[in-house]
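Q: Structure tokens for this one, please.
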Amino acid sequence: MADANVALASGPAAQFINPANIVDIARGARQWEAGTLLAQVDGHFSRGSSASAARAMDINARTAYPLIPYAAIAAPYTERLTLGFAVDSPHGIAIEWKDHTWDVNLGSLGSADMVKLAQLTVLRFGPAAAWRLDGGWSVGARVFAQYVEAIDENDIATLRAHGTSAGLQLGARYRDADFAFGIAYTTPTNTKVEGKQDNIHAAATSLVPGDANARILLPGRLQTGVAFRVRPDLWWETDLDWIGWSYYDELRIYQANGSVISANKSARHYTDTISVRTGLKWEKSPRLTLHAGFGYDPTPVPERDATPTASFLRKSRLAFGGRYQLDRDRQIDFAYQFIYGHKRRIDATDQDLFGSTDTRLFEGTYESRSHVLGINFTARF
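A: Here is the predicted structure, written as tokens:
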């Protein structure tokens, strides 16, 4: 339902959203769930006439891997306690630009492509537990370990680094026959990634080859949702999703000699955002359930911080899908989501990178269209 499922998410995969919801798994019915997402991102950039030359080109944005898999298992341990374990990838996008899109003039040293590939991959895994309280309430928690990999490639230098950290998800839910309310919180994470910096351009005299490290700050998230049964076979849910982007306030990359790369010692003036999701779930028959929904995500990125290495567009989402019960113990879910990144004009002028004389390097108009297909299989055993 365009991700509007904090109150109604069910099955083992509910651990990703609100761990309190896994109490709905029936006593004695252990369940496992596995699935994958396939995403295609079609971006477009046009450079304005005030820049060196008016031109338009496509963004070659893609997922970090062709498929984004996830898996979860959950089983009631007692009448009140349900335990689970899940693996997912909440971040797995690479933005890869076509060659010579961001060429800059470096004088006697020729030109260099300043932006080629930016990739951030996050893999989370860990146990969850949910406890059924009296009066329709349940609470849950998930502790996760997190593996983070960051890659930044351009003609100036190549940086590859990885690291680990941990975080916590907490959730609560109330549900009766005709109403449900859910709330879930994910803590922010601070991951130190370490790796190598190499392929350094002659113009980058301040860069040092060898070991490098940085801290990847991922924001906290608070989700809340309410759902109403508007008729016997139809639920309507609306969610609000707060993301604390202001936590990501600076990026510093340290070199082998302990110095900070000046071009990456940059403040981030991101603002916290509240996204909206709303959708319907239609229980068409005992075997078939259909859902559809809409969502809107404001951007946390002000114009002064917009660069082609990260998404900075407002997004609207339209989704539909369904669930089919194959038999008593097996079901299959399918979904499609279209995400439109609203057109945005950027007139940033503070791009004096490594002596570049093109101070309007990132000026232009950006927009994107993404298609996400998902399928997963659930079984009781």
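A few notes: The longest strand covers residues 158-175. The two ends are 27 Å apart (CA to CA).
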